[in-house]
Specification:
Length: about 260
């Protein structure tokens, strides 16, 4: 059975901070993670008076499983989320990590008033066809070998709770979800999509020496194509910048909101 339009699912969400406060932020996690993995960034923003919402994306955490995992389907799900349940209100800021950055890009391009600004944390904007099998193998290998102790050994800058939450999130994701997310998106090329977004977009890229997904070449091309785009490389931080350097993510969030 096929469908011409994405069929959204109702996502499980976590919330921090005053229920009706502004600014309001939406935090989108990466592949094999969950809403709980934002715990430090969410807590720090809530302590500054923000209302923070983080969903489990489809196929992750406590959210429903589905047959399809295209970026359009992921985006349809998050477009159903609104600050304080009011669809007229847009998010003051959306933060997306890795897959979450790609989802935020697609969603913001589809509905221009959905987010006043975007902070993308080492987003995956492109997956080449000849890289798909290797990426799937790498991700599935991680699913079979993820424990808190091992994660802390590989990521010494993480808090112990980061390792615990990542391991718990990974146990809830199936190989099917991983493979379909990579294979269902036949053309994973989002540079032009991101360049067309009207809202300000700031990217935090990981240190290239530590396995960055977002490259300086992508950043330079986007900076030339979109006046409201800029990026910065976080020296010493790996792909999960929100775990390696949560203070930097919080500081960039506050600074980006102040500029809008």
């Amino acid at each position: 059975m096929t469908h011409s339009e994405p069929i959204p699912v109702q996502l499980s969400t976590l919330r921090w901070g005053p229920a009706d406060a502004r600014p309001a932020a939406l935090l989108l996690h990466g592949l094999t993670s969950s809403a709980n993995t934002w715990w430090r960034v969410a807590h720090e923003l809530a302590a500054r008076g923000w209302s923070v919402t983080a969903p489990d994306l489809r196929g992750h955490g406590s959210s429903p499983r589905a047959l399809g995992y295209t970026l359009d389907e992921y985006a349809s799900d998050v477009l159903g989320l609104a600050p304080h349940g009011n669809p007229v209100l847009g998010w003051d800021l959306v933060i997306g990590h890795s897959l979450g950055g790609a989802v935020a890009t697609v969603a913001a391009a589809r509905r221009h008033h959905w987010a006043r600004s975007l902070l993308l944390v080492d987003p995956v904007l492109a997956v080449a066809e000849n890289d798909r099998n290797g990426l799937i193998d790498e991700l599935l290998g991680e699913l079979g070998d993820l424990g808190p102790a091992g994660l802390l050994a590989r990521h010494p800058r993480w808090h112990s709770e980061d390792a615990t939450q990542k391991a718990a999130a990974a146990r809830l994701v199936s190989p099917y979800v991983v493979e379909r997310t990579v294979r269902d998106n036949g053309r994973w090329q989002l540079e032009q999509v991101l360049a067309g977004i009207r809202s300000p977009v700031h990217v935090l890229a990981a240190d290239p020496a530590l396995g960055a997904s977002f490259t300086a070449a992508e950043g330079d091309r986007l900076a030339s194509a979109a006046a409201a785009f800029d990026f910065a490389v976080v020296s010493g931080a790996g792909h999960s910048i929100q775990r390696d350097d949560p203070d930097r993510v919080v500081a960039e969030t506050v600074a980006l909101h102040a500029r809008v």
